[in-house]
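Reply to thread "Modeling small-molecule complexes from scratch"

Following up on the discussion above, here's a worked example others can learn from. I took a protein sequence and the SMILES for pyridoxal-5'-phosphate and predicted the complex. Inputs first:
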Amino acid sequence: MRYYSTRGGAKTVTASEAVLKGLAPDGGLYAPAETIKPYSEINLPGGSYREIAKAIFSRFLGNYSPFEISHTVDSAYNEATFDHPSVTPLAQPADQLNILELWHGPTSAFKDIALQALPHLLIAAAQKSGDDRETVILTATSGDTGKSALEGFRDVPGFKIVVYFPEKGVSEIQKLQMTTQEGKNVYVVAVRGNFDHTQSGVKQIFSDRDLTLRLEKAGYRFSSANSINWGRLLPQIVYYFYAYGQLLSRAEIREGEKINFIVPTGNFGNILAGYYARRMGLPVNRLICAANRNNVLSDFINSGIYDKNRSLHSTLSPSMDILVSSNLERLLFEITGHDSERIAFWMKELNEKGRYSIDRETLRELQDLFWSDYADDQETQDTITETFREYNYLLDPHTAVGKNVFTKYLERENDRHRGVILATASPYKFTGSTIRALFESNLYKEHSELELIKILALETGTAVPKNLAELEDKPVLHRQVVDPAEMPEHLQKMLINHRE
Ligand SMILES: *Cc1c(COP(=O)(O)O)cnc(C)c1O
């Protein structure tokens, strides 16, 4: 399988080049350049997570050797990295309620699934390219990605990982997860400002030619662990197949029976992986895109107009507080039959006017496959409360958005295909919001989030993921705080001094 840019202005590359580059030189995203063949060799009902992963990875990673693929999968998904033998277990708290738990990885959020695999895909890609410089991964995070990337890249030979987070823009638990990070090659830096300031600081580093040259001289090259990298999308296709296999082996569905997936969505990476699973022939009826109050995507899917000219709201599901869903570009490329001219035009409109509108035919195609609505914070809280009361099952706020939107779908559409809700975070990762939804909101006002973890466990009789239970005993190892403007200078000092 080879890859080319959604905007048509870059040459076709191999899988490892696509992984190494991340973004195409013309600003587009890399997408498969060849027909995606239906699966036939994948043993669904009997296959383990790792077997299915190897079959799917091989399909898309043409120039990786079988050894490199096995090594990547075995290193990413094992008893040391995931706390459940199934990797992504399918929970069934009630009849007709299927929840695919994607949060059993080292940081309790679904981004672990991709970020445990990406470093290994990058190492092999760097070896193939003959570039033996040390790679510095730079990441700006609003919470979940940073910690997942730190765990994925810690102590990986040939890499340094630098994570910037907004000093006051992440939860107490997320901050502690990052500032207690161990590893010889990790750097964690707080930035004075919000996520936008943090992200512009990182962009400034990437575009600083002088800095790049100086660091290149010192033997470094830059990369990002961005969610538009094909190497992050690919690992996410696997769990759609795995979930289907689980339903088959429990005799919940018949071979070939279509099902729906409900995906709490932000950057459109997770749900796009579901689209590729469907393109490979997985019997998917609808992909239900669940948004929060930042409902750009549900407006788009319902009207064909993408309009980011609106203010960003902070919600209880912060990992979905996004106005530009970058992976959507890949979907449009696919459903227009790889019409890179149209894609380049829409993206230019988005860039210049903050808005674009797709043609009727593309909209029809989109609505055939996708359905979307959103849940506000009140609905999110109510869903957490009701689900716990009725089924004794605890949802985090992101997954609660998914469940709420699924309920709306069932009320409005006459569709009785089975649905699987993707659970993107452990409720313990967002303890404050979860506990305030369950109990009177004033009750636990004075407690720190670490105390709340224990209270939530006691009150609900659920288990705390190990990585979060251990947080309070870990020493804080990273205390640096910088202004956004100082970031390039600070990075240079950090990397070059460290080397001396
Ligand atoms: C990143 C994230 C999402 C959104 O996923 P996308 O792939 O960006 O659509 C949803 N929930 C949680 C908990 C996340 O960390």
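What I'd highlight from this example: The chain has a mean pLDDT of 93. Residues 109-111, 144, 227, 264-270, 319-320, 398, 424-425 surround pyridoxal-5'-phosphate (CB under 6 Å). Questions welcome below.
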